[in-house]
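YM 10:42: Cytochrome c1 sequence, as discussed on the call
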Amino acid sequence: MIKRYISTFALAFGLLLGTTAAMAEGPELPSAGTNLRDTASLQRGAHLFFNYCVGCHSLKYMRYERIADDLGLTENDVMSNFNFTGAKFGDTVISHMPADDAQKFFGKAPPDLSLEVAAKGPDWVYAYLNSFYLDPKSPIGWNNLILPNAAMPFPLWELQGEQVPVMGAAKPGDEPQIEKLKLLHQGRLTPEQYQQATRDLTNFLEYVSEPAALQRRHYGIWVVLFLLAFTFLAYLLKKEYWKDVH
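YM 10:58: structure's back
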């Protein structure tokens, strides 16, 4: 029995080490610094999504009505600023790009982003939005460090501007690799403002991936308070029960 437990533990530990090593092989990602309790950030992120992303990407598991309730917005706020397809308040967020056009422009339909952060993590999405650069060899003129040869053109270029790669030194016989990206032409935002904008957008997409997280964190406070109160009452009951026992 003991040998079996030791073998199971060794196997689990080996798998953990293998997973950790595999993660370490990937590029180091900057921290997105998202905060679902920051309602203003979520509102700004929603504004960015509906002005720059919804033309191609849907949120098929999210309803306009739910966005209004969770982000402290009125029906008029949402339908006036976020609804460009004539959808109803209770409808889900569906891109207005026809599937045939998407196939023609990108070679495949752009993915739904409802679960993007849940699948790849907020740090990955944030890094992706900050890693586009000009690439004359690409058919769309853009490339991305985090997702090389991505079929998506850079939708936020007017905000960030245009980045170009800076190549690192290469060993003889090796191809030079991109060492970093340099801002060639600044967009409408400063680098700090753009980083905040992509942080807000990532924050909104993280909320979209699990809207219940907002309620769960709110309920969590009350659950902790209940447990503290229950523990205190249990302590008083214990003292009362054992006071005559010596």
